[in-house]
Amino acid sequence: MANTCTMNHLPLHDVFVKKGATFIPFASWEVPAYFTSIIDEHNVVRNKAGIFDISHMGVIEVEGSDAASYLQYLISNDMNTLHEGGALYTPLCNEAGGIIDDIFIYKISETKFFLIVNAVNHEKDFSWFASRCQRFSVELKNVSGTKALFALQGPLSPDIMKAAWDIDLLRMPYHSFITVSIDNSDVIIATTGYTGEIGCEIICMREKAVTLWNRLFDAGRSFGLQPIGFGARDTLRLEAGCLLYGNDMNDTTTPLEAGLGWTVKLEKDDFIGKAALVRQKKEGIGKQLIAFELIDRGVARHEYPILKNNIKIGEVTSGSLCPTMNKNMGFGYVDSSFAHQGEEIFIAVRKKLLKALIVKKPFYKRRKCGPAL
Fold first, then answer.
1. Most buried of 18, 59, 194, 300 (most Cβ within 10 A)?
2. Residue 50's closest CA among 181, 188, 174, 199?
């Protein structure tokens, strides 16, 4: 029987085919894993600049007189800290405190916001939002697929944006955005990212994607700008201590367990999941996400057991070679009684037990490039 499953394509798919990309499936999308190699592309972002097509991400618009209070009720972070032109990272929790998704909220005005959500979750998230808006005066739109999203990341990103559109990223605060007109179309430039590097994310209408992409490459050619695949996106985010939904957190893990306690504002009025999180904080956390560095040679992969004294105490959630440090590192959940920096643990890799140490994350921190970032 023929395979009738149709994969979604990114706006730059045809461009990537011509560039010889190697593709993989991801959340119903066919995406480039790499163009040259994962390590080469990783190093390009760390040392020069790279650009990702991340148009697989979901985009949801929220508008109305109650938009701010509605979102405040849905999230664990505090909307009151969000100013116009600002972006807020937050978990979206269920009643048990489990993470439905981790999202970014962008504030256009007091009554208008847009959300960037994970590709695998955008339909689930939209249903969640829609089922909980009855007592609020809001209008929701799932505009996923109508937008193109690029991530320009790396130490030379400010030079490229300056050359392309005379935009000074170094004068923009971290987690802020501006709206500019390019080719008679509104384009959002946000100082957000998933690599640990300076850079920005660019949101435009899907039909403008190729034009904007080409303009960036024209401006970035002399700076060594290269397209980057999802393989390097994963190693970059791991080094930077960024979690991946579906691996490092899901609807059975809470923000307190995932090390995202800084996004949980228990002092604010009621929000979905608050009672469960208050209870968990009072009673104590049974498991905790840790970062580890392998001492023995090998790579720890998702769901590999973590042991102490030959007893399983948890599981790996993410693991990879981290090219910047040339070390194998990862994340995992362990019993909280063992979640201490410097603790020696073992990872079961096939039939071997590999020694590892619990360390502090992030594994990598970039050099500061400007006073505002």
1. 300
2. 199
